[in-house]
Amino acid sequence: MSGIAGTKSSLTWAVHLSLAVMVLLWLFPTTGLLVSSFRTADQISTTGWWKSMFASEQNLTLRTAAPDYQTTQDGNYVIQGNLFEGSAAATISVWGISSRAIDDYKAGDTAQLKKGGTVTVEVNGDYLMQNTEAFTGKRGQRIFATAEKPPEFTLGNYEFVLFDPSNREGLAKAFFNTLTVTIPATIIPILVAAFAAYALAWMDFPGRALLVAAVVGLLVVPLQLALIPILKLHNEIGIGKGYLGAWLAHTGFGLPLAIYLLRNYMVGLPRDIIENARVDGATDFQIFTKIVLPLSFPALASFAIFQFLWTWNDLLVALVFLIDSTGDTTVMTKQIVELLGTRGGNWEILATSAFVSIAVPLLVFFSMQKYLVRGLLAGSVK
Amino acid sequence: MNPALQALVTIIVGVGGCVGYFYFSNQFLDKVLFPAKGPNIARNITRANMIRPWLFLMPALLALSVYLVYPVVETLRLSLSERLPGNESRFVGLANYQTMLEDAKFWEAMRNNVIWLLVVPALSTAFGLLAAQLSDRVRWGNIAKSMIFMPMAISFVGAAVIWKLVYDARPIDQDQIGVLNALYLFFGGTEPQQWLTKLGWNNFYLMAVLVWIQTGFAMVILSAALRGIPEETIEAAIVDGASPIQVFFKIKVPQIMGTIVVVWTTITIVVLKVFDIVYAMTNGQWETQVLANYMYDKLFRAVDWGVGSASAMVIMLMVSPILVWNIYNARKEMK
Amino acid sequence: MANLKLTGVQKTYGGSINVLNDINLDIQTGELIVFVGPSGCGKSTLLRMIAGLETITAGEFTIDGQRMNEMPPAQRGIAMVFQSYALYPHMTVRDNMSFALKLAKKTPAEIDAAITKVAETLQLTEYLDRLPKALSGGQRQRVAIGRSIVRDPKVYLFDEPLSNLDAALRVATRIEIAQLKESMPDSTMVYVTHDQVEAMTLATRIVVLANKGIAQVGTPLDLYERPENEFVAQFIGSPAMNLLPGKIVETGDVTTVRVDHGNGVIAANIPSKPDMKGAVVNVGIRPEDMTPVTGDNYAFENIVEISEALGEVTQVYFKRQDVNSSPVIAKLPGIHRDVRGQRMRMSTEPEKIHLFSEGVSLLYR
After folding, report:
1. Which residues, 6+ apart, have CB-to-CB distance to A114 below 8 Å?
2. Which residues are CB-contacts of A289 (< 8 A; sequence separation ≥ 6)?
3. B180: enclosing H helix or E strand
4. For residue B68, what pLDDT band results from cuts at 50, 70 and 90?
5. Are the CB atoms for A113 and A119 separated by under 8 Å?
């Protein structure tokens, strides 16, 4: 398509540009979360995360120490210190003492204070206030400075969220619980579905077409319908709320897609191979385990990824079937929802927790994208 | 027991149980019940082969019946009953439905769901189509696709956090940390907006999250469909004098119409089930209620199983046309 | 009215993969030019460059003196018939044919008139409202041709248009194309095929492409009777021309050659210069020209290994001289039984002999 004569290069540029805009638009929100998770609470709440990447020129409102801290030197009253005490260092270019003229003085200049006395501010934020009379008032002098702050990131949030034993909302346990739910809930349906898919694809029996249709129908049944009946059932047979119930529920809900995907794939395997094996004297069980199962690896992988992502990211099944009143079995999604309620303003914790929970799916996504795409293509009902 | 250990045991028991079941049941069938030897060998093999499919199918059928078929029936029954103390229930006809229909919150959820159904599949499909078309024409298309596809891997809850940050609002005298407000002020807005509490509009801010997630799905499917279009028809159109825009809308889009419908319906189903996003971002406050969350509210907060089940049946009812359509197509294809 | 002129045209993919080099070709109004060549020789690429579906890396292509290199396909006044027909599957036959006209903003009345006329010529009237998938292969092919005719282009381009049809339909459609050409004497056609019969029957001139360039341009009979080089000699005609190594023993208006295998001497009606005496040449004889002889003037002698009786002719395969040489084949008219195992001497008339020195025909030296 690139070889057409007379194609306008402006069009090619428009394509590149629009796609770039779209990619940025799609990437931007996630990047925000990622960047925020590496910033301190202070940084997050004072500047937009997109400014954190660059050594940014910022207009800061700073304060000198309060008059309480003044000392006397050679008969002068003096207050001195550094404007950035307690926060990251920065380089001041210009500054002022009034919000209307924030760039009156250069670094190193001395300004006359309205209430008497002078103040000198150096490039690195060191200041010196001098007056012949004592400074009065409760608070320090406001300094409006334009400063260059280097980008600064921290791993502290992750430490706090994952490893701090004093953090009762920590994610370590929930992370582990999520993993505990996910792995059996991914493996078991594959096995069950693979056998069923083989029967539906390669065995002849009355009612096969009907069963395939039923599976297609069940694909879209909302799992919401199952909440109360299954919870009731679990309570009645003594499973109650817990891992076993969650595993079983995920297995049940995942089966239609699993059977559908695998059957579609198995039907596409060359008939000759299977018939040849049959002629060679293999039983159905042997054909399945020795030929069909290995050949179906791509479809198995596709479904495994789906089911993994789905169970890892699930909230509803966990809420209903897993998490009991003790909260010992809480999963990450539930934990994050709770944080959203209780710590809605603490973005450093929220962002970090959320990123911990999406890191694993993203890892799976980027390493197994090929299978995911293949599965999607096979799984959308044609 | 330590949950990790329990998980391990479950895997072993589950996998081992499955393998064992399949292996021994087949062995039993072939060796004990209908041995492939002796005078009745032919009859035995035929019989074994008649039973074997059901051995293969049994665990799946069992799970499907218990976890999907039974709930549909049971939910229907619950929606027509009233719960009495002591695990008893009483048939009450359509009373639950009537209660539900008189609930303003239900109508709010219905209204919002309809808007979701109109907006999300349309936008996701449109953006997906755009992304597919654009990325197929540039060399870095695969990377672009990856990036747009990525939100598919993110949980709805994670997405909710991501977008809450986008929608965050700070008082006017502070730096905005939400991108949307920063942009809004940059382009001349006077005051930071609390986006998620703006009645009417807030629904669209929630929908944006799902569109953001589903666009990648639409793109992947549509991109494959676009690549399946015979190149020569496109070249023929170019020789016929069609501009790139005309080629796209008159030649390419009509040829992938079937796939567009599939994508649309698939996203429609996702929308009907959407729960986590609303639950995590607004929990249905500020008139953002949707059916799935309404149902959850009724079932687990109000503990009203009757109305909860009735609303679940409404979701089921809305899915049914697609269900029928899918079955129809699947059967057509099998012939 | 369209003269096509290719001057020094070259095609390179990705900066390094060269497919066509220095193509110079003059196509006159009203000609039907056929590009033939082995697969991968670039014949389709050349056609697509004329269409504008591929850019021209170097050189110039003009139609009626106007440079076309940068001209978009639609503005070149061409129409193209594709191998797969490339019908728009979602449009009826009528819409397929009117698509280009609608894009060109023709009035509905004009479009209607054009389609009615073409549909009648091609017997498509009753299928106008059908979708392509409801048509047979031959009908689809006619729609594809009709779609190009309605646009009334100056130049028609055909990219292996018959290769998706079965044998019988191929012959019928070939004749239709020949008739179509006759009914439009002013239009120029360029036709790509790998089928020799199509090339020989349809072409005013054939362009044989090989080794990234043009091996020979000429009328079909020119190529058959006076091939410029061994490649063209062997490419045109089936089975391929036999090439028998030998040495020139006598020069002059008639050249005499002694062949290496056997001790035969053969005279050819081809002049040669005295300095050619002793030169190593290949004697080329077409299988259909080979006749059995008895005297000492023969081109070839060996035992018949296989004979294939086809009814009208008998194809005789001689034992190879050595493992590397290709088998010598003779096509003897009529039925010959029991020739297998016989030793035969073969020769032909002097005017049917071709002589190649270093791959090039002595006729063109």
Report:
1. A97
2. none
3. helix B179-186
4. confident
5. yes
pLDDT in tens, C39-97: 888 888 999 999 888 888 889 999 988 898 888 888 888 889 988 888 898 899 999 99
Residues 6+ apart with CB under 8 A from C158: C80, C81, C177, C189, C190, C191, C192, C193
Tokens of B334: 């099998």
Nearest Cα to A339, choosing from A321, A353, A318, A319?
A353
Contact A4 C56 (CB under 8 A): no
Cβ of A46 within 8 Å of Cβ of B50? The answer is no
First vs last Cα of chain B: how many Å apart?
A: 52
In this structure, are residues C292 and C307 in contact, taking their beta carbons and an 8 Å threshold? no
User: What end-to-end distance do the CA atoms of chain C give, in Å?
Assistant: 36
Query: Considering only A29-38, A75-84, B3-12, which range has the smallest mean pLDDT?
Result: B3-12
Contact B222, B263 (CB under 8 A): yes
H or E segment and range at residue A256:
helix A243-267
Phi and psi at residue A134, in whole multiples of 5°?
Answer: -70, 145
Catalogue all structural domains in chain C, each as residue range(s) with its CATH number.
Answer: 4-234 (3.40.50.300), 243-364 (2.40.50.140)
Mutate which of A2, A4, A10 to test chain C, going by most C C-beta atoms within 10 A? Answer: A4
Of the candidates C354, C336, C353, C356, the residue with the CA atom closest to the CA atom of residue C344: C336
CB contact under 8 A, C53 and B239: yes
CA of C79 vs chain B CAs: smallest distance (Å): 7
pLDDT tens sequence across A121-167: 888 778 888 888 877 777 777 778 777 777 777 777 777 777 777 66
Residue C73 has its nearest CB partner, among B230, B239, B257, at B239
Chain A residue numbers touching B88 (CB-CB < 8 A): none
Q: Is the pLDDT of residue B288 over 80?
A: no
Structure tokens at A199: 């029967």
Nearest to B147 among A23, A354, A357 (CB): A23
Å from B120 to nearest chain C CA?
27
Q: Mean pLDDT for chain C?
A: 87
pLDDT, tens digit, 9 for 90 and up, residues C208-234 = 998 888 989 999 999 998 998 889 998
The pLDDT assigned to B123 comes to 92
Cross-chain residue pair B238–C89, CB shorter than 8 Å: no
CATH 3.40.50.720 fits B98-334, yes or no: no
Q: Omega into B321 within 30° of 0, i.e. cis? A: no
Contact B14 A46 (CB under 8 A): no
Q: Inter-chain contact C73–A7, Cβ cutoff 8 Å?
A: no
Q: Which residues from B are below 8 Å from A18, CB to CB?
A: 130, 134
Residue-averaged pLDDT of chain A: 80
In sequence order, the 6+-apart residues with CB closer than 8 A to the CB of B287 are B108, B112, B199, B200, B202, B203
pLDDT tens digits, A100-112: 777 778 877 888 8
Contact C99 B237 (CB under 8 A): yes
Question: What ipTM was reported for this prediction?
Answer: 0.83
pLDDT band, residue A1 (cuts 50/70/90): very low
For residue B174, how many other CB atoms are within 10 A of its CB?
A: 12
Please report the domains of chain A, with CATH numbers, ordered by start residue.
56-149 (no CATH), 160-379 (1.10.3720.10)
pLDDT at C32: 92
Whether the per-residue pLDDT at C191 is higher than 90: the answer is yes
| Stronger pLDDT, A346 or C232, i.e. the higher one | C232
Q: How far is A325 from chain B (nearest CA, A)?
A: 13
Q: Name C217's bridge partners.
A: C207
Give C123 to chain A, closest Cα distance, Å: 34
State residue B3's pLDDT score: 59
Compute the nearest-CA separation of A323 from chain C (Å): 53
Whether B75 and A362 lie within 8 Å, measured CB to CB: no
